[in-house]
Design a protein that fits this description.
31% of the residues lie in helices and 26% in strands. It has 134 residues and is α+β, with helices and mostly antiparallel strands.
Length: 134
Amino acid sequence: MVRVTARRREGFAHEVEIEGGHRLVIDEPKQAGGADQGPSPTRTLAAALAACTAITTEMYAERKGWELGDVEVGVEMEYGPSGVPQSFAVTLKLPRALSDEQIERLRVIATKCPVHRALSHEREVTINDRVEVV
């Protein structure tokens, strides 16, 4: 289990503490009423998809002994009418020195990162909501 806590700083800005001592600021852009002190929650989701895809690809290549050098993953996110992310376009940039077989294998592996799997509903994700009055 991982524990993440969001605490309000001011306006819509929240300091998010992630178990292990990591912190980041999540906010809304000015046009949405925020102060733009950090990325929005949905943009952070796209960032998590990009990072997870890169890490999963790099870990697989390392296990295979393949030299990737610098890997770059771009994610373009489209919002639906209700402001909820509707689609993600993931672009994995790999070095030319890889064979066609290696490239295809890495393309498949990239879709197996945990964030990709959660977003694509490959696995059932359960969210249990509760309210505590303090």
